Amino acid sequence: FFSPVTMGDILSAYFIEPKHLPEGFGGSVQVLSLGVVYGYILFTGSNLISEGSELLLLIPSIAGIVGSVVLPILGAVPDGAIVLFSGMGPNAQEEVSVGVGALAGSTIMLLTVPWCLSIIAGRVNCFNGEYTYKRPASATSEWKRLDPPDRWLKTGVKCDSSIKTSGRFMLMTAGAYLVIQIPAFFASCGTTYEMEHGECHKNGLYVWAILGLIMCIGMFIWYLHTQIAESDEGRHVVLEALIDKVRQRAVRQTITTLRALYKDYLPAERDSLLKNPDWTSGDRMKHFLRPFFNEFDTDRSGAIGVDELQGLLVKLGEKADRTTAEALLAAVDKDKSGFIEFDEFLEVIGKQMQDAYMKEIAKPEDPETPGLKRRSTMGRLIKHEEEEVEEDAEMPEDLTDLSPEEQRRRILMRSAVKLSLGTGLVLLFSDPMVGVMSEMGSRCGISPFYISFVLAPLASNASELISAYVFAAKKTPKTMTISFSALLGAATMNNTFCLGIFFALIAFNNLAWAFSAETISILFVEACMYKVAQKTEHPTYYAFLVLLLYPISLAVVAGLEGMGFD
Q: What's the CA gap between 152 and 138, in Å, rounded?
């Protein structure tokens, strides 16, 4: 019903036209102020989308599909919206450079800046080629993975081999750029060329744009399919980390309890523990409980007393007064020191969970018990290396005392509101943001590509940068893998979802392909990061080499344009 141009006009009619602002310093300040306001609104919208998606992870029946399909798509919406609206206005051929800048800037920024920060935040000591993730048996209570904290030489990070697969996905999907770029060179569209009348389009590049769109759609579906398959098989580390983060929050905020997790979501470990209630051999629960134990082991002595034990049990959702805590501690305190270590605590909680579960299955289940009220809100547990850093939580406490059906309904409603509001803000303010960045470029006398390359990712990808840093700061191989995999996954979504939108604009909005320099820059950085992702050990100096790719990519674009490339 609406053509792309009239839709852009309708949206633009409600906002200040940046090009109508006064010339000179005062007008430029107004343009910059508009950019700050619109950028902040886009940043808020992106965060609302993220928060709304994470709420859906509290519903076990859809957590897998949400984490493997919904989250990646919604995470790419802000960049996709900027790309879309940059090619929908009356000056689409000129303003689409803003969309290209947002696509290139988002991809390259995500692969460089947060990667660098993740290595710096997650680095540990490295002695004789071994990274010090495990506490030595002879270590004192003062032992740290990074000592001294300001140490840079002989430090680095380690991750598992799954990032190699993520790197391959990214590189393969980057091949979609070549579908149109190679024909563009043969059509003389890769160098400065007269395109005012769409001559490159007439040379048949629209056919290649359609083929590129089909390829992007196919790879997009293929990528999401692999994410779902990995989720079903329990091999999706990023999804498992997201679900685990929600589970940790829910336990700390009394949305769920350890007893409910034991009963409903750890059947394999539960069944083995029914035969042998020794939780010192149960990796999944052991790694889940370690952060809680460390929270109450405030002096880092590796042991807790009766007061700490009581607080810990209450934190995990158990009803425990001081008398109960004293009895439990005495039962496992073999040296009568009045303190128990982590393995002894596992004995306490393992026996308690086993007894509670046996009593539960011996009686008919109350039909009103299932669901969130019974605290069965989570999926699989992932393994956490010992001594993980506690995460802050912001869970909705007002849902705790509601019935299961009402909790689920409220969560869905709250998620829908956040997703709708966030998506609405992104769609509504992307078009005026494109106009602002285009006007900034005009007033500064530089291509809008460079403006959007730097500014657009700050609004649309800041949450990914922060999330990668927070995970890496836990200083474990697992969290480093999660951090790197999430960044590679975001680049893959840009190569499929966002690039597919761009191809659609080229094919159906009669735009010329004049982005050879930008394409070469993106492919150069992704090829370099593919090589980095094929290594599981990253010395700290890798952080600065990776960070250098960001300014180098801009220099590549400027250099190629200076040589005559579009």
A: 24
pTM across the whole model: 0.72
Q: Which residue has the tokens 């922060």?
A: 466
Separation of alpha carbons 136 and 144, rounded Å? 10
Q: Return the structure tokens found at 199.
A: 């001559």
154 phi-psi bin (left φ>0, alpha ψ -120 to 50, beta other): left
d(CA 33, CA 38): 9
Instruction: Show pLDDT as tens, one digit a residue, over the chain (566 residues).
Output: 344 444 455 555 667 777 778 888 888 888 889 888 988 898 898 888 877 877 777 666 666 677 667 777 888 888 888 888 888 877 777 788 888 888 899 999 999 999 999 999 999 988 888 888 887 777 676 778 887 877 888 899 998 888 898 899 999 999 999 998 888 877 655 444 444 444 555 456 778 889 999 999 999 999 888 877 776 555 555 666 666 666 666 677 665 666 665 654 444 444 444 444 444 445 556 767 778 888 888 877 788 888 888 888 888 777 778 888 888 888 888 878 888 888 888 888 777 776 665 665 555 544 444 433 333 333 332 333 333 333 333 445 555 455 556 666 777 888 889 889 988 888 888 888 888 888 888 888 888 888 888 888 888 888 778 878 888 888 888 888 888 888 898 899 999 999 999 999 888 887 878 888 899 999 999 999 999 999 999 999 999 999 999 999 999 999 988 887 76
Contacts of 400 (CB under 8 A, 6+ apart): 253, 254, 255
What is the full DSSP assignment across 383-407?
---SSPPPPP----GGGTTS-HHHH
**DSSP structure class, residue 155:** E
Say whether 446 sits in a helix, a strand or coil.
Answer: coil
Q: Are 376 and 60 in contact (CB under 8 A)?
A: yes
Structure tokens at 339: 């303190």
- How many H-runs (helices) and E-runs (strands) does the chain carry? 23, 6
